[in-house]
Structure formats: structure tokens, C-alpha cells
Amino acid sequence: MKEHIKNFLNEEQDPKAVEKITSKLNDILMRGEEIGYIGVQKKPAITVFPDSIVLTNKRIIICKPKNLGLSMDFVDYGWNIITATFVKENILGSEFSFTTNTDITVSIDYIPKIQARKINTFAKEQLELLKEGNAVPKTETFFAEPSAEAHPQIEAEPQVEEVEEVETEEVNDYAEIISPLPQPVIPAYNEPTPIAEEKSSKDKSLAELSKEELFDKLQNYKKLLDNGLILQGEYDAFKKEILSYL
Questions:
Q1: Residue 189 placed within a domain
Q2: How confident is the model at residue 135, as a pLDDT?
Q3: Which of 8, 64, 151, 217 lies 20 to 30 Å from 241, alpha-carbon distance?
Q4: Torsional sign, CA 14, 16, 20, 22
Q5: What is the C-alpha separation between 166 and 31, in angstroms, rounded?
């Protein structure tokens, strides 16, 4: 097993998924940014390309494989815009979610329970450090061995201001590049997805649509999923029904 992923397999994360994520993250990590924890989705059925969540000392990154795993979408949220984090434990895994200062709620489901607890603990520690005005948080919580230089003296105030300014620019630029929609992301609660209406009308219209129109409809549901407007389970149901007409 490759050395650079051993630290991220403490809670039975999928080694292949972690290796693929870390290899791609090397190209997008900012200066001084370090990976602190990686959680990997584990659905009841076999999931060849699971979603993952990566926590660094500067942001949370949601990783979504696409095109049969040949490419991957990254959506990141800086700690300075995150207001709270939550864990909801279900029978099959847990759902980790967080809110931002723009009233957006982001969630990822089917995270193994112990991973979800570690993710939530790590996230709360980063938010607490940021609230106290400390310098860039360290990522030694779960797997780094303590050393004599674990707590060096640093000039907190100038570094905090500089890191926040750089982080804001990076988040804005990167979100522009990867966003699947040209318009700004609409808060999930302002425009709830009309799931019931959509479901009641699909039986009447899907059979009449051409293959191109069915493919466009499937892509629209994917965009709603990528922007947090519908859950993964809802998207899977829509996808299964549309594919039955192709």
C-alpha cells in the first residue's frame, strides 16, 4: 500500500477511492494547505465510484466522480464561510451536513458512522480555532504523532488576515471553474425541488420524449444534485426511471 494514503485509512475507508482522491488533490491544494481527514461514502448497494469529503486546514472539499470515474468534480467551502456542522445517524450510515453564511446547506449521506463522527469533530475544532483568531489550524488531530515543534510560536494576527484573503479569492475562482451552472447557486430552501409534481407528471410525458430530450432531462437532474438541490437518493430514482425509456 502506498505510504501517502495510509494515514487516511483508519476507519476502513475504501483504499482505491482514497488513492484516486489524493492523487488529484495534489493539483488543487493551496500553499500551506494540508489534508486532515477523508471520509468515503459507503452505500448499502455496491458503489463503484463513491462520493467523498475531504477536510483540510483551510476548507471542506466535496469530491464527486463522474464519467465512469474518469474525471471528478470538486466543490469547496472555506472555513470562514461555514457557520455550523451536523451529523445525523441513520440505520445505514450517517449524513454529515454543514451550513454557510449565505444560508446554503450542503450534505453528504451514507458516510460510515465512525467516519461521520470524526469528520464532525475535526470540523468543529477548525471552526473553534478560527473563531478564537488563531493562525492556520494544524491537521494533527487524528493521525500525526506529537513532536517537540507541535505548537510553535507564530504571529497570529497578520497571518490570519493574509490567509483569509487568499482563501476567499481561491474559493471564488475555483467555484467559478467547476460550477455546472452559469448562474449563482440558489439556496436550497428558497426554491425547493418540486419532487411530487415532477413524479406525478413523468408517467405521462417520459414515454413521449425523444432520446435527446430524455438525456437532457437526466442532465438537468444531475445539475440539481451537484448544486445540493436534491439528495443522491432522489437523483438515483429519477435516473433509473429515465433510463428505462432509453
A1: no
A2: 52
A3: 64
A4: positive
A5: 10
Q: pLDDT tens for residues 72-125?
A: 888 999 999 999 999 999 888 899 999 999 999 999 998 989 888 999 999 999
- H or E element, residue 109: strand 105-111
pTM for the predicted model, two decimal places: 0.50
18-74: pLDDT as tens digits: 888 888 888 888 999 988 888 888 888 766 778 889 999 999 999 988 887 778 888
Q: Which of 193, 194, 172 is nearest to 184 (CA)?
A: 172
Check which CATH number belongs to the domain holding 83 and give it: 2.30.29.30
Strands 94-100 and 35-40: unpaired
Is the domain of 17 the same as that of 65? yes
Q: What is the mean pLDDT of residues 182-188?
A: 52
Please answer whether residues 110 and 92 qualify as being in contact, where contact means their C-beta atoms are separated by less than 8 angstroms. yes
Q: How far is CA 55 from CA 59, 133, 153, in A?
A: 6, 19, 24
Half-sphere exposure of 232 (CA within 13 A, CB side): 15
Task: Give whole-number Cα distances, 81 to 60, 76, 127, 181, in Å.
Answer: 11, 11, 10, 21
Q: Tell me which residue range forms the domain holding 58.
A: 3-144+153-178
